[in-house]
Design a protein that fits this description.
Blueprint (H helix, E strand, L loop, with lengths): L24 E2 L7 H25 L1 H10 L4 H13 L4 H9 L4 H14 L1 H12 L5 H33 L5 H29 L4 H22 L5 E2 L1 H6 L7 H13 L24 H18 L5 H8 L4 H29 L2 H13 L11 H33 L5 H28 L5 H16 L13
Parallel strand pairs: 1-2
Protein name: MFS transporter
Subcellular location: Cell membrane
Membrane topology: Multi-pass membrane protein
Amino acid sequence: MDFVQVETTAPRTLEIPQIALPPTALSLTSRIPKDAIRTSLKASTTDSVLTAVYSLGTGGILLSNFLVELGASPVVFGMLCSIPMLVNLIQPLGAYLSERSTSRFQYSLRTHGIGRLLWLVLVIGIVGVSLGVINNHQLVILTLLIVLFSNLLGGLGAASWLSWVAMIVPPQLRGRYFGIRNSAASLTNLVCVPIAGLVVSHWYGGSIQGYGVVLLVGIVFGIVGLGCQYFQVDMNPQSQNTYYGKLPQTNEIQQEARELLAGSKGDSSNGDSTPPVAPASSIWKNSNFLRFLLYFSFWALAVNLSSPFFNLYMLDTLDLEVSYVTIYNSLQAGATLLMLIVWGKLADKIGNRPILICIGILVAATPLLWLGIGVNRLDIWLWLPLLHILAGGTWAAIDLCNNNIQLAIAPTKNQSIYFAIAAAVAGASGALGTTIGSFIVQFAQFGGLLGLFAVSSLFRLAALIPLLFVKEPERA
């Protein structure tokens, strides 16, 4: 997810007959200027870097450790992991609302902007605990409420954002561009996660206050990241749906985008043809999308049987300090950083489905490698770091290729609806997986966490079967 300097030029204003556009909206039937494409790609990359800093405080290991410090129960921990997935059920509503808007940028501000500002309430709550105004239990409840409502607002805007980016980035370059973009975010995690962990662990007022400081900094970065979206070419969803089959000069636009991303100019080639646009008929008649949906939902269930509990295993069962776990997460981010560009280029050459199948088998076997991990020096200083490095390299391929193949399969018209349904089904499946995993952990006869890891591995292998029948559009 290259640090870049965003050009300070506003999107051009163009008009479409019979469709009212806001000042920043760009018609899909008009030729996108080269400078606008360049600025959009830079702005999106910068946004990913700043959002990565925001995500450090609002999720992941730091938020989990914060709840552990407050004395939260395992049920609360399970809810924390389930909420971000379960709220994806609201994405179809968000897609419907976004398609009735006239600006992707304005819609993003109303959803993601308010969602990020909500975390300021938690900062105030942490101050309240320090002053004795509220107790730890009340702060735990407040945290869960903020997680719920901020993720609900994020769910309303997620499909719209993905559809926006899908229209900006040419299909033939998605692997490479998102590889670079995600690498920038991973580099940010690599640098910032251990720093944030040290701040939380060594803050003079205690780890809870230290988390509040990290959270406040993250919120500021998150709001600035949203501001970067102003420099992206804005899209009018109504014009996208009305004129989806009438995009002139598409080959030339994609060729210019290729040159911009490569950093050089070249002659136009014959290999920049656009994949045929899928008919915008009923989603349920799109058999290829339904096969992908089956894979995506089953995969989410299988993965989330165990994934939310790896941090719990290290923090609770192994009783490791949060600073150790943040170092492991940094190693994972470093591996992701190194491999994302490799996977992106490879996906552009051979397609996403072969990578998902091959790497998916390795990801399915990974939970088995946690069996036997203990608190001895060899495991802490060698095997746990190696496990996180392996996870970083493999999940870089899974996340990137899942995103790209979804962009390729979904038709252009009402695209955000397809994205929303996929996210909603996968979110519900993931939440169900976390819930099932929580029950398995409670029963010692099933082997606790280690037994859960073994079950998850089998489910992950089975989840890859529907992917064998998914057809990825041919690449020019």
